[in-house]
Task: structure prediction
Amino acid sequence: MQTRLAMHPVGYQFNPTFAFTLLGTFAIYLWTRPPVVAWIWVLPLAGTMRIAWVYAGGTFGNYFGAAWISWGTFLGIATLLVLAIQAIRAQSDQRRSYMRTFYAGSVFPLLSMVTGYSLALTLWLRPKTWDSFLLAFDGALGFQPSFPLGRLVLQDHRAWDWTTVIYYVLPFSGAMLYGAHRVRSRRPVAILGLLLSFVIIGFAQYGVYPAVGPAHAFRAFYPWRSPALREIALQSMAIGPDPRNCMPSLHFGAALLVWWNSRIWPLWGRALAGLFLLVTGFSTLALGEHYLIDLVVVFPFALAFQAAWTKAIPCTSSARYLPVVIGCALTIAWYVLLRYAIPMFEWSRVVSWVSIIVTVSWSAILEMKLAAAVKNSAG
Result:
């Protein structure tokens, strides 16, 4: 599928996700409030690079919105060039600030490239996947959400196009979150460390529980016919060259972290973060990239990182260490249950739904207690 191909830099020109990542670099720079005379140079430099690219015969890709999404690539590269020049010319104190911005603006694109190229390792390490177990769990709920949502967006090409754009834009939201925290005098959560460690360690989980998503594992069905439970053989599957990047959903998890840390924004900003969380969850399912259970398991997984990087309260505080312990325990428990206890969930829908409700609500309650402890620590 185009969405899976466009997620990673491998073999694709002007990858849309990578373009939004570099647009985030430009956003981080703007959050530092540089003088207009400084950042305005980014625009003509980006335009010059774009013209040169077109003149050299370069293309922007064939995905929806390529002509304007690709601007993010040029703006991000131009921003890094301007920051490098400013760092070279600045005095020592200013140089540190510019270098810090340069590091933050470059680390996300670099991480995107490294993980994108490294996904090929998941095919070598885990040639077989456990998608049948995840599909069976979703089916045990009484329906498989990815299938009706996939049918919904495929019935209108505009809905499909805009759903893919929503799927691509996640890195930009993470950059906006970092930029907003960067300019605050009090930063209770180390956002950069939180996002980077979440992606790196989350990436390692793809080898723990390999899966590719219903659109790739069940091409013969998706999205027009949801397989019945009796049709799903609970066994590992030999899947083609699709990255094993399904369990847990780091895509939805990152949007969840943006939502949890958006309390510093005004009400309208927090509302946008909440809306973005919902539409991200919708896009991950509708595009067939994830199962519903992928989105559930990432709640406790993200909770552990949120608590670990909340530096405003001591590690000995129960509001901080309990989310880490419970988040890790729930994540491991789900890995085990989804591999060895699917018959238990198929026995009764109540068991499946209660397990989901307990996981999501417990994670949400622990996160709210963590946020309340941070607020109280501020006096």
Observations:
- The longest strand covers residues 128-129.
